[in-house]
UniProtKB/TrEMBL annotation:
Top-level division of the source organism's lineage: Bacteria
This protein's UniProt keywords: Membrane, Transmembrane, Transmembrane helix
Protein name from the UniProt record: DUF4191 domain-containing protein
Ranges annotated as spanning the membrane: 33-53, 59-78
Biased composition (Low complexity): 211-234
């Protein structure tokens, strides 16, 4: 027990520091975050405390009000922080890859399986819904990238459904904040072993990431691809 306590004590400052950092980053995009959180906490606590006085148990309802106020504040903070994060990522190269990297269990994601010199890029995710190709960049240019990658997928794994999505705000596109939800709503047609086999077959293809060191998440805007387009195409 003595060994676990120092570890827990060391973890708490880390969590508090992370929360504080998240709040600072959120406040840059959401100036009213402090007032909103304070308002939510006060309203929830006030309502519970008022009910406590009405029924003759202000202490019990006051304690419950503190707990529910904290919970409501945490929920609102999480949602507004997520919205602010998506707002800051919107339009940045590699933003979709960051979302895919946190899509959850059951998915295997491979960022930047195809890319051109204009930083239009296609990412790949494999799960029980099949193969999902996610493109970000100029809508007109990424269509050719998607078509080439989809043709390759159909040739290698012809028995697996291939979906394609374009991240953006235009007609027929998927907003960045809705990308994860959209993918999770796709019908599940593969079993666990089939997903494993699909990943093994695709892994043999390699990907752009194994040929070129790219950072995870949004890519630097000044980064350029070498001449010749996608280095995987030979």
């Amino acid at each position: 027990m003595a060994r676990k306590e120092p570890a827990a004590d060391a973890a708490n400052p880390g969590r508090l520091k992370q929360i504080a950092l998240t709040y600072k980053m959120t406040r840059k995009a959401d100036k009213k975050i402090g007032l909103v959180l304070a308002g939510v906490g006060i309203v929830v606590f006030g309502v519970l405390l008022g009910i406590g006085f009405l029924i003759g148990h202000p202490i019990y309802l006051g304690i419950l009000g503190v707990l529910l106020a904290f919970l409501a504040t945490a929920i609102v903070f999480g949602r507004r922080a997520e919205r602010a994060a998506f707002g800051q990522m919107e339009g940045q190269p590699g933003a979709a890859a960051a979302v895919l990297d946190n899509i959850g269990r059951g998915w295997t994601t491979t960022p930047a399986v195809a890319m051109n010199r204009n930083q239009d890029v296609v990412h790949r995710a494999v799960g029980k819904a099949g193969i999902v190709l996610v493109a970000e960049g100029n809508p007109n240019r990424v269509k050719s990238l998607l078509a080439a990658e989809k043709k390759k997928m159909n040739r290698i794994v012809a028995d697996v459904p291939v979906h394609d999505l374009i991240v953006g705000t235009g007609e027929g596109q998927v907003e960045l904040k809705k990308l994860r939800t959209t993918m999770l709503k796709l019908p599940r047609v593969l079993s666990g072993p089939q997903v494993t086999v699909t990943n093994d077959r695709l892994r043999a293809l390699g990907d752009l990431m194994s040929n070129m060191p790219l950072p995870k998440g949004p890519m630097p805007k000044g980064m350029r691809m070498p001449r010749g387009g996608n280095p995987r195409q030979r």
